[in-house]
Amino acid sequence: MQNGVIVVLTGAGISKESGLATFRDADGEWARVELEDVATPEGYRRNPDLVHAFYNARRKKLQEAALPNAAHLALARLEQEWPDQVLVVTQNIDDLHERAGSRNLIHMHGELLKGRCDLCGTISPWAGEMTRASRCPSCQHPGRLRPHVVWFGEMPLDMPRIYRALETCRLFIAIGTSGNVYPAAGFVTHVQSCGHARTVELNLEPSLGATLFQQTVYGPASQVVPDFVARLLAEASS
Ligand code: BJW
Q1: Which of these is catalytic: 97, 107, 109, 148?
Q2: Which of 3, 87, 138, 164 could bridge 122 with an S-S bond, Cβ 3.0-4.6 Å?
Q3: Distance 234 CA to ligand 1 centre (A)
Q4: Sorting pLDDT into bands at 50, 70 and 90, what band is 203?
């Protein structure tokens, strides 16, 4: 393959082998809680305590029990060794890509280890429990801090930068995402419409949009991603 910009879209499947649940698999988050209750602004207004409990538990597990796996590490290696730009666009709110060493990274659905103040708009690091009484570290106002995550009906983050990268990339790789949630599920079609990139899906099983990709490889992310990255880097250096 010719060198050029690579965009990698990741979803919950890449963090599954790090011990973090996906959403729509049989053992996923949406089998335990109603998404309308915990992942919408309306759910948060109805019952903020329930939403805080959902994110507090995930924040604790992320910090106490999750480590990057071989797939996260392979993407960090790709960014270091690929002769052109590699941008990872993750739907995940965990910090496993950062911990693995990825630096050119967009969290389009926000970050679990940050809070956002509804009053002053400041986004602050947040490692502990968040409650209705939590104060914004910037304006000190209590009761207006919420998890810095993107719920249904809210605008995902950094979209202009993501679309610019999709329009210039030579390779688009989607890893561990089911293709249920837009706008991320539409990225492959957007890339195809630009007509100058190869598209690849790496997943445990075919996603909803699997037939839209030119190449598909199925298996656990910790195996298929390192293999795919090794092949790409070998092609680039030959
Ligand atoms: C493995 C594996 C292993 C397992 N190895 N793989 C049409 C167009 C545009 C928008 C819409 C539309 N129709 C409806 C909408 C609105 C809505 C939407 O998409 N609804 C759908 C349900 C239809 N979208 C929105 O509201 C978004 N905002 C928006 O659209 O704003 C307007 C806009 C439009 C156009 C451009 C710009 C803006 C916001 C979406 C917010 C999503 N939020 C959540 C929760 C918050 C974060 C959190 O709590 O963590 O984000 S929902 C949840 O789903 C989470 C995830 O990031 C997201 C995607 O899930 P993901 O990652 O795909 O996980 P799963 O579980 O679905 O799949 C796991 C995959 O891994 C599976 O395929 C497995 O096979 C695989 N797997 N083990 C490899 N070991």
Answers
A1: 109
A2: 138
A3: 32
A4: very high
The letter for the amino acid at 217 is: V
Higher-confidence position of 195 and 203: 203
Dihedral sign (CA 204, 206, 209, 213): positive
Digit-coded pLDDT (tens) for 80-104: 999 999 999 999 999 999 999 999 9
- Examine the residue annotation and report whether 109 is marked as an active-site residue of this protein: yes
pLDDT tens-digit map of 99-156: 999 999 999 999 999 999 999 999 999 999 999 999 999 999 999 999 999 999 999 9
Closest CA to 175 of 159, 157, 199: 199
Measuring from each residue's beta carbon to the nearest atom of ligand 1, which residues come in under 6 Å? 11-13, 16-17, 22-25, 28, 39, 91, 93, 109, 149-156, 159, 176-178, 180-183, 203-205, 207, 220-221
Q: What share of the chain is helix, strand, coil (3-state, %, to 5)?
A: 40, 20, 40
Number of DSSP helices (H) and strands (E) in the chain, helices first: 9, 9
